[in-house]
Specification:
With 280 residues, the protein is an alpha/beta fold. It folds into two domains: 2-218, P-loop containing nucleotide triphosphate hydrolases (Rossmann fold); 236-271, no CATH class. It is built from ten helices and ten strands. Bound molecules: adenosine-5'-diphosphate (ADP) and magnesium ion (MG). Residues 40-41, 84, 161 line the site of magnesium ion.
Amino acid sequence: MIEVQGVTFKYDKITALNNVSIQIEKGLKYAILGANGAGKTTFLLHLNGILRPLSGKIFYDGTEVTYDHKSLVKLRKRVGVVFQDPEAQLFSATVAEDVSFGPMNLSLSLDEVKQRVDDALHACGIYELKERPTHSLSHGQKKLAAIAGVIAMKPQVIVLDEPLAGLDPRHKDMVLKIFASLNAGGVTLLMSTHNVDLAYEWADRVIVMNDGAIAANGTPFEIFSGNNQYISKPVVLEIYQRLLLCGFLKDDKRIPRLKDELIDDIEGAALNLPQGGAPP
Ligand SMILES: Nc1ncnc2c1ncn2[C@@H]1O[C@H](COP(=O)(O)OP(=O)(O)O)[C@@H](O)[C@H]1O
Ligand SMILES: [Mg+2]
């Protein structure tokens, strides 16, 4: 769906991306890991043309991305970005105005725009904030409003730059539920995060960035099962692998990705033990 070919990008003299190549497949969820300064944000901002490669190319559905106004408008209709800082995203006086800003530029009827705004606000659980001034919202509410603004554009791909940073558990949960429902509707998601536990349980593919380059790219199990110098191991996988090593669990089933799956495996193994017995 998106193909990035040998992209290099510099901010003045700082090389932020160094010959990055990757294919993004339709409908999948990608987690992007990497230390601060690894190039995650710079990479994500290339996907909808906010940044333009110094060298290299990007293709969307087989067509090379070009940077004239018309092509960029088309690209941004397909690829939405939720910035790390919602303050950078919200600029209208009220939530409704902000969420309607994108759709208003799509030459839709006014009714269609209103419908999209209402649907997006409902999808994000913030319909009651519709007439609120954006500056009066909490950080979590601002994040939800920023996501609603992107959803109202009905993009095929949504790029999320550390979307959970600074959110409380309830807002994290809300945001993850919104992402799940978008992805169930076929939207491709790319999310940068520092949370390896989330990347392991959430993503279809994990991309690890280091120093402006892609250090690893694979399924969560491929990325996390070995020892990777750039990232720590998810807790569920670490406990599972230790329990395999000591013989308490056997690797004859699916590999647990969720905490509850691991607990099921442990309870199952414990129930098979002779009373008061030690693991074999
Ligand atoms: N606006 C900018 N001006 C100059 N250098 C920048 C700017 N934004 C990022 N960089 C540099 O580019 C590199 C990659 O940064 P970034 O893409 O923000 O990484 P990440 O999102 O993984 O933390 C870092 O060395 C960072 O200091
Ligand atoms: Mg960043």
